[in-house]
Amino acid sequence: MVFDTRTVDTMKESLAHYFDISCEELVEFIKEAADNTQAKSRGLFNADIFTEELDAFLENIEVTEQIDGVMCFHFSRRINNTAPDFRTYNLKDLLLTDNPMSSFLNESGYEFFEEDGHLAFKYNGVEYFPETGDEPCASLLANRLGRNSIDADYCFNGLAFGDCLMKNLYARSLFEGPEFLSTLAEYVCDDNLLENYKRHSTYFCFRYILPLESVIIDGCESLEQYDIIWYLIHQMASRIMIYEDGGEPSTDDDNPIIRVADDAILPSEYIQAVEEITLDML
Predict the structure, then answer these.
(1) Nearest Cα residue to 271 out of 96, 85, 98
(2) What is the pLDDT of residues 54-105, one digit of tens each?
(3) Looking at the predicted structure, is the pLDDT value of residue 152 above 70?
(4) What predicted TM-score, i.e. pTM, was given to this entire model?
(5) Cα–Cα distance between 177 and 195 in angstroms, integer?
(6) Burial class (CB in 10 A: 0-12, 13-18, 19+), 209
(7) What distance in Å separates the CA atoms of residue 185 and residue 147, rounded to the nearest whole number?
(8) What is the pLDDT of residue 260?
(9) pLDDT-derived band of residue 192, with 50, 70 and 90 as boundaries?
(10) Would residue 81 be called left, alpha or beta, if left means φ above 0 and alpha means ψ between -120 and 50 degrees?
């Protein structure tokens, strides 16, 4: 089973199915947990108390369903007029293997290579080895190229919930192009790179189902599979509570970030749906 996190209604239905209760019973549990939390919080709503109150209801329910996958949503621009390649690469493989992105970069004067286990690149024939500490864009680029072993960042990122994606600042910022390209262009003072990429690409939201064993929650990297399931249950319940109070999230910036291992390449079979995203949707 996979929790369907596309909308608040599908979240309710998934949780009710998982715990083998009705949606009405689920909402009643959540509301009672919220009321108890408010009474104990003495002011500001305390998320830890809410989790404890919710668990007091739900942990006593015998669960027979097996969670084996996690739904998530990934925003990405893809080059137009190229052979379809819906694999999702980690950054290292994206830059070093033959694919539409690496071809675009090559045509723009960039050539990436591996040097002492880290990535570096040539731009118009000049070699660059960005290092942490030089300037902000150099530090970020060094991390993305794995030149800082502590903060190396090659991996895929996705968002756990789909109910308010168009309010997410991350989704809006990526409309202009990948953060990596923006940082690369700033580092070498290439005024055309990002605009060329945007002009020759289309912005999509990909809906994935990832195997549970591959999932990492950003900021909670130590969570085991059982804990990841309960983390998502708590987060879904918090979202449901907001809607049941008659509102909806004003932003989506607390949407949990789903990661996978730095060296993972996600096969196209993990993709469940693809939607083109235009500026007026954001």
Answers:
(1) 85
(2) 999 998 899 999 999 999 999 999 999 776 677 899 999 999 999 999 999 9
(3) no
(4) 0.92
(5) 8
(6) middle
(7) 18
(8) 94
(9) very high
(10) left
Do 145 and 161 contact (CB within 8 A), yes or no? no
Block residue for tokens 């591996």: 114
Encoded tokens for 46: 């305390």
